Amino acid sequence: MQTSKMRRKVAPAAAADGDSADKLDQLLLSAAVCNGEDLGPFVRKAFTSGKPETLLQHLRHFSRSKESEIEEVCKAHYQDFIIAVDDLRSLLSDVDTLKSSLSTSNSQLQSVAGPLLSSLDSFVDARNVSRNVALALDSVRTCVQLTELCSRANIHLSANNFYMALKCVDSIERDYLAKTPSSTIRSMLEKHIPAIRSHIERRVNKEFGDWLVEIRIVSRNLGQLAIGQASAARQREEELRMKQRQAEEQSRLSLRDCVYALEEEDDDGLGGIGDEGKDGYSNGGNGMLGLDLTPLYRAYHIHQTLGLEDRFKQYYFENRKLQLTSDFQVSSMTPFLESHQTFFAQIAGFFIVEDRILRTGGRLISKMEVENLWDTAVSKMCSVLEDQFSRMQTANHLLLIKDYVSLLGVTARGYGYPIDALLDVLSKHRDKYHELLLSDCRKQIAEALAADKFEQMLMKKEYEYSMNVLSFQIQTSDITPAFPYVAPFSSTVPDCCRIVRSFIEDSVSFMSYGGQLDFYDVVKKYLDRLLTEVLDGGLSKLINTSIHGVSQAMQVAANMAVLERACDFFFRHAAQLSGVPLRMVERSRRQFPLNKARDAAEEILSGMLKQKVDGFMTLVENVNWMADEPVQSGNEYANEVIIYLETLVSTAMQILPVQVLKRVLQEVLSHISEMIVGALLGESVKRFNVNAIMGIDVDVRLLESFAENQAPLLSETDANQLKTALAEARQLCNLLLSNHPENFLNPVIRERSYNALDYRKVVIISEKLRDQSDRLFGTFGSRAYKQNPKKKSLDALIKRLKDVN
């Protein structure tokens, strides 16, 4: 017990001597022992720190601190206390054993771990060396790759493969510049990469500038080729239409053995896929045409790679706009007629190239920009056309330019460009063109008419017949005549027909492809003017000033009859060229446009024939107006007139159409009838008797017989119409020879039998009629003679007519 007390006294002293750490460890160990926890961590800590004595000291201190408690417990539980003490002593023995075991293990561990630690140090050193070597290898590898990229970039630059060179430079800048181990190499790259990009930009811009120069020549050639292809397509279309017109004509003529065929046409478009250029750029055009867009697309792609896409687009658009503006310049040193094809071909080629770039350039130029350029071009072309057309005074020049402009329109429309403004300019000058064309035709027709010799045209070969007759459809029979063939017309007819046909074709050519589909009415209007104003006027002037004989007048009249058939051909030809069905033209037939010239020709022919007849009619003076016996074979003048008329008919029937001959003969016979009545009415005939009238009746019958004899040549109806031309002379003879002349007063009979007689002439002529008893000295032998009832009736008629007068 004293020992316990001593220990309790020592414990506070020992605790007071320890530092705070020992107190903490002691507290923790005490708590662990109290809680029955594992003391292994405390043991390992003690041996690790090399202070197992401290642990033992703490344990002893704990045991001493618990002795008082043990004593109290022991008092209460002595037996348990004894057992606990034994256990404690046993625990102390085990702790000592554990201590020695730990010490032994520690010694063994120290002996074993020494070599391992030295090996670990060697391993750490080796690993550091390895890391340094790996880092060096990575640096070398990076430098090798960087060198390879630089070498590849140089190769691409040498080969002008700028896109790949830029890709190499971008890869160097992106992947290697930041991790380049050498500061020297890094500074060199930082200096040369911008220089390389600037060099590439300059080279590409130079190539693009060269392309801008070359593309103008290529555009002109391309425009000429495109317009040429449009012209060839139009020519094929015209040939197809001609075949169709021939088929329609054959069908109209009921020729059923014609053969129809459909022909395939190859498209001659300018499109095509060109070869792939360098860098994989498609040139976007046909290499055969010289259209190579590779430099343009390469420049565009390079600028895209450089991040300068918008700047290049603006640069391209401004340069192309300047080129287009320069294309608008019209040289004052060269006539526009000579330079218009180059002018329009250049513009056409420009927009063909722009269309190709729009479709294949990848938004290099927008559709709106192309449309704005086209609007500018159309405005300028319209201005140039307005100015040039206003200066032109030759229809052919205007037509040539119009045709080329229309081909330009066809070409532009094929690429989707609107051409309405150009067509409006062409339509605006339609009237001026036709006025110039009419003026040219007026000169040509005047020259053709002035060269006419008024002789029938001789054709020795079939091709001459085809060229001068069949080509104008003025033949009277489908049977080809024997050659040499003497035509009923003179050379002026085919000459004028050629001029008119050329006018029609030029007019249709100007109106065609001008945006107006139905232009036949316009062509017909100007054709009417050509025929009525120019040709009819020229023929009328020729007839009134240059005809000096019956043969010439007859030839002109024959020409007019042929021209009448030719006019039908003219309107059919105009309809065919205008694409109008012939049935519509035939349905709307109009008056003969050369009727003034025709009437003048027939009038002058009739006038000359009347003059000839007047020469024979002077023989009327030889008629014995107081003849004792009537003339049985007709008077001399009548026989001469009939001989002349028969000779005239035999000549005229070779060249004059039947209807013209009928009209002329009708005029002549009517004139003869007037001359006969005029002779009886004239002052030279003071009196006449019935025998003289009977002789005149014989003359009229001879003339009527002549008219009837023309029935085989004309027709029965026409022959009867010829007889009606003698109606006045015939009715006068019938009245004077009638037994009841007073019937003239009966309106019904007069209308039926004497409608051609003027009652005033009847009075004058009837007063001159004398009976046989009125002859000189006739009354001496017949004092008881009574007045003839016929004479009495005639006197009553005269008296009644005088009363009416």
From TrEMBL:
<dbReference type="GO" id="GO:0009860">
    <property type="term" value="P:pollen tube growth"/>
</dbReference>
<comment type="function">
    <text>Component of the exocyst complex involved in the docking of exocytic vesicles with fusion sites on the plasma membrane during regulated or polarized secretion. Involved in polarized cell growth and organ morphogenesis. During cytokinesis, involved in cell plate initiation, cell plate maturation and formation of new primary cell wall.</text>
</comment>
<comment type="similarity">
    <text>Belongs to the SEC15 family.</text>
</comment>
<dbReference type="Pfam" id="PF20651">
    <property type="entry name" value="EXOC6_Sec15_N"/>
</dbReference>
<dbReference type="InterPro" id="IPR046361">
    <property type="entry name" value="EXOC6/Sec15_C"/>
</dbReference>
<dbReference type="GO" id="GO:0006886">
    <property type="term" value="P:intracellular protein transport"/>
</dbReference>
<dbReference type="GO" id="GO:0006893">
    <property type="term" value="P:Golgi to plasma membrane transport"/>
</dbReference>
<dbReference type="GO" id="GO:0000145">
    <property type="term" value="C:exocyst"/>
</dbReference>
<dbReference type="GO" id="GO:0060321">
    <property type="term" value="P:acceptance of pollen"/>
</dbReference>
<dbReference type="InterPro" id="IPR048359">
    <property type="entry name" value="EXOC6_Sec15_N"/>
</dbReference>
<dbReference type="GO" id="GO:0005829">
    <property type="term" value="C:cytosol"/>
</dbReference>
<keyword id="KW-0813">Transport</keyword>
<keyword id="KW-0268">Exocytosis</keyword>
<dbReference type="GO" id="GO:0090522">
    <property type="term" value="P:vesicle tethering involved in exocytosis"/>
</dbReference>
<dbReference type="InterPro" id="IPR007225">
    <property type="entry name" value="EXOC6/Sec15"/>
</dbReference>
<keyword id="KW-0963">Cytoplasm</keyword>
<feature type="domain" description="Exocyst complex component EXOC6/Sec15 N-terminal">
    <location>
        <begin position="58"/>
        <end position="227"/>
    </location>
</feature>
<feature type="domain" description="Exocyst complex subunit EXOC6/Sec15 C-terminal">
    <location>
        <begin position="422"/>
        <end position="768"/>
    </location>
</feature>
<dbReference type="GO" id="GO:0009846">
    <property type="term" value="P:pollen germination"/>
</dbReference>
<protein>
    <recommendedName>
        <fullName>Exocyst complex component</fullName>
    </recommendedName>
</protein>
<dbReference type="Pfam" id="PF04091">
    <property type="entry name" value="Sec15_C"/>
</dbReference>
<dbReference type="InterPro" id="IPR042044">
    <property type="entry name" value="EXOC6PINT-1/Sec15/Tip20_C_dom2"/>
</dbReference>
<dbReference type="GO" id="GO:0016020">
    <property type="term" value="C:membrane"/>
</dbReference>
<dbReference type="InterPro" id="IPR042045">
    <property type="entry name" value="EXOC6/Sec15_C_dom1"/>
</dbReference>
